[in-house]
Amino acid sequence: MTGIMPVVLNGVAVACVVTCGALLGVCISSGCAQKPSQRSEDHSVASGHRLVAESMNDFADAALVIADPTVLQSLDASGFALARVVGNGGPDLEVNPLVSSLASIGTTLSSDIATIPAATSDRESREFLRDRHADRTFSRELLLHRQSYFRLVGIINRMDRGYRHLSGGLVSRCGEVRLIYRFVYRLTGVSSAPVSSPLPFTMAVVLSAGSGASRWADCARLARDWKQTSRSGSIGELTNYLESATFAEQLKAMPVDRIEVNLQVFRIPAAAKPDFGGHAEYVLRTFRRLSPRGPFVPSRLENQVSTERLLRFAGLRAAFRRFVLSDRAIADLDRGTLDVPWRFLDDRAISVSPGGMSRSANDPFRPLLDDSDIQAALDRYEGTGRALRRVRSVSGFRRRLADLSCSGCHQTRAIAGFHFPGTDPPGADARNAIQLAASAQFYADLPRRRRIVDMFAGGGRPDFSIGFSGRPDEQFHAALSQTSLAGGWATPCYDTVDRSFSSWRCAEGLVCRVLFSVAASPQSGVCVTAGLARVGDPVERGEVVSNGIGGDSYRRTFPDAPSVPSHYVTTPPPADRADYLVLHQGFRSADLTGGFPGGALAIEGCDRLPREASCGRLADTGFNKCIASGDLFIECLNLSKSVGLRSCSKAHPCREDYVCSLAGSTGLGVGALGTCVPPYSLFQFRVDGHPKPGMRLPVGNAQVRR
N or C terminus: fewer CB in 10 A for the chain? Predict the structure, then answer.
């Protein structure tokens, strides 16, 4: 097959978004088609799931999430900067909080970055990082640089969290509010103009609703005030309401319960982890204050059991087994409201990608329980005449436990381990920008959260139960009927007969494919096109084999052809057109390509695109040479060509392990569709390739601003 080939940085496939900015409707860089691509009408997606553009000014979800970057910029400047929210209004307000008010968190994370790579259970990562540790880990210099800062990227109403009990006490009867911040570095070049980018690091400040000196101690009033936001008719109207005393002052009166951190510690390329096409690890932590004005210190994470400690101490493991197999715990597990007691928990979690729940490190419960004990506990519970709605099998029990852990949740229908990275502010470079603020799991759960807010507003006590994180309950499918979020393309599914997952079926025209199977353990698959593959469909499948917790390897089972770096054979593309690209997962040394989890079908160029595709960009010949010369990654992205990639939107998201990047050549203007690419294709989702403090930057790079 001739034409362009995806080029990779050190063995990892790199894609960039098309350079016609969807938000601006104009070309902002060279190499972009300046008119809508010609679309073919030959193919359509499954019935009921046609891809559509969505309005960027839709306020229907404002009662649940504030995600508009213009609104958030205003709030950030009017009292919701991170340092102000955590109670520091001193002279160092403009300094990176990690070296001032949150210095204790900065110290802990710096230590994590220094120690986790050498302790990883992944053999290839240990060997690779032994030689290139500094280049492939999160920069501690940028982490603690005084000019680095946190940008407010989301305010999330979590009244659905009003069920939580810890140590026998109700945490917050009205749930929580989460302020999500994204870490951004800012460096000065020789021209003194800033060069900056977000990095894969989010911080959530969790406020306890229904407590403190606030009129929102009344949950019904809190819910009604939240609902008022969805009545806004413009960005200005929404901003004014959020900054009013009715909303902003009440929000500021809420006490900070904790701070949650998610940070990509390191990422190694496909050349170093050729079977998976790369490997990344994230550290998840929670911090709390022991006194009102004291420093934030590490605290145990919700439902993240300490696997190592429980395996080491038989008595502690026996106590955990008695707890989790008890009738009360089974009932809570079925509802999704289980709170594992603190004595079993860890204060740090590691999640890995790609591969989601097939990866052993993402399921801390896996080695702690025997299938026979789980089945006996379920039989005992149902033998009393009580019914279980969701957890009705051993695999359902295990999946639900993994769902409730931090590591499991963050690798289920997620974006490179994140559920809310936020969108980029106006004027952001489209080559390093994302289309959607949140993950597919987040958007699929909104109907449930909306019902809970409505019940609170009406003075009722909500039903806090929740479906599996990979798939919303059937009762919410009607609300999602015009989307792909429940049974459509890219939705998790089960192709086996299992009582817990009987509703996890695919819509007409789709089939369930397990991309990462685990021996002797049924794994969810993904709904993809039945029959002839379409753009975005996976082209490879395989089996994950674990040698202890975190020591995973991958063996490709489809296609049945050689898949070693020196002889990597891809599956033949469909024969209905001659310009397909087969993007593959494993590393191929001949052309330094790979890094697309499960592989993906694409189209060379952007002519006659089918309905499921939009015009995006893949790196072209010369990219690796550009990187090797020491130029900034963002400048090297100019070496790219147009490619037809899977379209995406809030209603029709990408497959797991992919991100919806900004696209703009669809000619749809505001609300145009994005394109699905591996997250590490974007500068802001990888820790390597960024400038370091003190390095001499070319003057031309000063235009790269966030």
Answer: N
Joined together, the tokens standing for residue 113 give 């970055």
CA dist 163 and 169 (Å) reads 10
Give the DSSP letter string of 313-333.
Answer: -HHHHHHHHHHHTSHHHHHHH
Residue 50 has pLDDT above 70, yes or no: no
Q: Where in 65-139 does DSSP place strands (E)?
A: 65-66
User: Could you tell me if 373 and 381 are in contact, meaning their C-beta atoms sit under 8 angstroms apart?
Assistant: no
Rounded CA-CA distance 211/229 in Å is 21
Mean pLDDT of the chain: 84
Q: Residue 583 is encoded by which pair of tokens?
A: 């993007």
Find out whether 675 and 18 touch, Cβ atoms under 8 Å.
yes
* 77 burial type by CB count under 10 A (0-12 exposed, 13-18 middle, 19+ buried): exposed
Structure tokens at 600: 């993906």
Amino acid, res. 384: T
Burial of 219 (0-12, 13-18, 19+ CB in 10 A): buried
The tokens of 92 are what?
Answer: 């160092």
* CB-CB contact of 673 with 121 (8 Å): no
Residues 6+ apart with CB under 8 A from 231: 59
Alpha-carbon span 479 to 626, nearest angstrom: 48
Q: Are 538 and 526 in contact (CB under 8 A)?
A: yes
More confident residue, 39 or 316: 316
Q: For residues 515 and 539, what is the distance between their CA atoms, to the nearest angstrom?
A: 9
Closest CA to 669 of 54, 41, 49: 54
**pTM score, two decimals?**
0.89
> Each residue of 564-619: pLDDT tens digit?
999 999 999 999 999 999 999 999 998 888 999 999 999 999 999 999 999 988 77
Read off the tokens for 635.
Answer: 């400048």
Phi/psi for 454 (5° steps) reads -60, -40
The dihedral of CA 213, 219, 220, 224: what is its sign? positive
Model pLDDT for residues 82-116, shown as the tens digit of each residue = 999 997 555 566 799 999 999 999 999 999 999 99
Q: Cα–chain-centroid distance for residue 327?
A: 33
What is the helix (H) or strand (E) element at residue 277, kind and residue range? Answer: none
Residue 361 near residue 551 (C-beta atoms within 8 A): no
- Cα 190 to Cα 391, 502, 695: the distances in Å are 60, 61, 9
d(CA 430, CA 23): 9
Q: Is residue 493 helix, strand or coil?
A: strand
Q: What is the DSSP secondary-structure string of 235-246?
A: HHHHHHHHTSII
Torsion angle of C-alpha atoms 44, 48, 53, 56, degrees rounded to 10: -160
d(CA 579, CA 102) in angstroms, rounded, equals: 53
Which tokens hold the place of 377? 């506990």
